[in-house]
Amino acid sequence: MLLSRLLWILILLASFSVRGSFILIPMDETTQQNHLKAYGITFWCLDKNYKASWLLNYRGGSFLLPDAVEIRKECQIRGVNFEVISDAEQISILNEIASPSQNMESVVLEKAPKIAVYTPKGKQPWDDAVTLVLTYAEIPFTAVYDEEVLGDQLVLYDWLHLHHEDFTGQYGKFYGSYKNVPWYIDQKKEAENLAAKLGYSKVSEEKGAVAKKIRDFVVGGGFMFAMCSATDSFDIALAADGLDICEAMFDGDASEGNYQLKINFSNSFAFKDFTLERRPEVYEFSDIDMTSKRKLPAAKDYFTLMEFSAKWDPIPSMLCQNHTQLVKGFMGQTTAFDAALIKSNVLTMGTCEINGEARYIHGQKGKGMFTFYGGHDPEDYEHQVGDAPTVLDLHPNSPGYRLILNNVLFPAARKKKMKT
């Protein structure tokens, strides 16, 4: 009997010794084996109403969660490293973060945002870097397209990603290389049929209406993230509102005379003073993009994340959380943005100084915010039509993909006004 009691006491003491009060998910380079799925764990916890904090600049932007058996189990299932810490260790970490001498901050994450991805029906997750990484991180999202946007369904969501879309009605400027290829012909016909179904005589008019609905979503308080050609084509569509900038092969009639002089740059989110590319055979929308201007070998193509004050500027600090400040570059139809054409009220968060280009920018519009990220796929340097999809199991620590997931998690944070 005595031996049995002693055994139970030992078991009880052992259970207390491994029980902590918090789970720390480290996000530094050496400790975390799967940075991308770590975001999915944090999102999963928020979705289950657990409390969470984002520890900005602490070990690569770590996450602090309550200790629960199901959280430990989920981390183990998804292959995410975690550390169980005591109350005393948690207090010590928060005291270190709170010190005025440390460029760190603890940000409370309140609620899992409702996520929408603007993408055509039938697209596979690997057609777009954001849908690919959301699927990999097991973060739920809803696909929406023109019918949902024009039907005012964006009010149901907190965060919207724009697939690599052409909002100008020029079918991605693929005309020069692919005008006789079956997939291009089919996609053009599908876009025309959808525009007609929605009551528009031209695809350019229908896409322009979609762009304005997305603008209203942001102005009303939504968070919008766009990559590659969805960045500049979106801004061009807003600035060219009411103008016909499409040539006959796109919409059946000639473009409007002197349309360049009629562009209203005050309508755009991020870019100013840009010149549109009139030639339909050129795979480019305007001089915003740096793809044809840059002379940088792939081996030297990196961009640097800017450093912000975590305590005073938590918003850009959140968006730049990473285990490295140097991120490998990657190409796209819109690879990077000419720094001279970015509005002064837009914050540049990632730059390649060699080329004078911005890769990663952020701004506010009305009550909402937007982030533009140049390039197509952070782990596929020069993605071509028909290329095999990226396998993220081979890149679980991708700094470029982490930037996407920073934006996904960002709306969950309790906001403080930016000082920069």
Which properties best describe this structure?
420 residues; alpha+beta; Alpha-Beta Plaits; Rossmann fold; 2 domains; ten-stranded mixed β-sheet; five-stranded antiparallel β-sheet; 32% helix; 16% strand; globular; Asparagine synthetase B
Protein model, in words:
The structure is a single chain. A hairpin with a 4-residue loop joins β13 and β14 (357-365). The chain is globular. The chain contains 13 helices and 15 strands. α2 crosses α5 and α9 crosses α10. It folds into two domains: 13-109, Alpha-Beta Plaits (2-Layer Sandwich), CATH 3.30.70; 115-412, Rossmann fold (3-Layer(aba) Sandwich), CATH 3.40.50. The relative contact order is 0.14. The strands form two sheets. Strands 6, 7, 8, 9, 10, 11, 12, 13, 14 and 15 form a ten-stranded mixed sheet that branches. It has 420 residues and is an alpha+beta fold. It has helices at residues 2-18, 35-47, 69-78, 87-98, 129-137, 146-150, 175-178, 182-197, 203-219, 229-239, 248-251, 314-319, 399-409; strands at 22-25, 52-56, 62-66, 83-85, 105-109, 115-118, 142-144, 159-162, 223-227, 302-305, 326-328, 337-338, 347-352, 357-365, 368-373.
